[in-house]
Amino acid sequence: MDGQDVVFLVEEPGLFRPWPVSVTPVREGWIAVQGIPPGAAVVTQGAYFLKSAMEVGQDEPGQDR
Hints:
Blueprint (H helix, E strand, L loop, with lengths): L5 E7 L2 E6 L1 E6 L2 E5 L12 H10 L9
Antiparallel strand pairs: 1-2, 3-4
């Protein structure tokens, strides 16, 4: 988000937190992800919708709400 690679961690059912990670290409079609806490539950499906929902809630510069 904002140019940084993130994954979404499951805090509790229905509550998700973006978490910054480092992504390194390993070979064609594969990446290595570093920075996920041990034992963390990571969203593997639907992260696009979580990211979109967060972006909709952000104010654009110069906008009054």
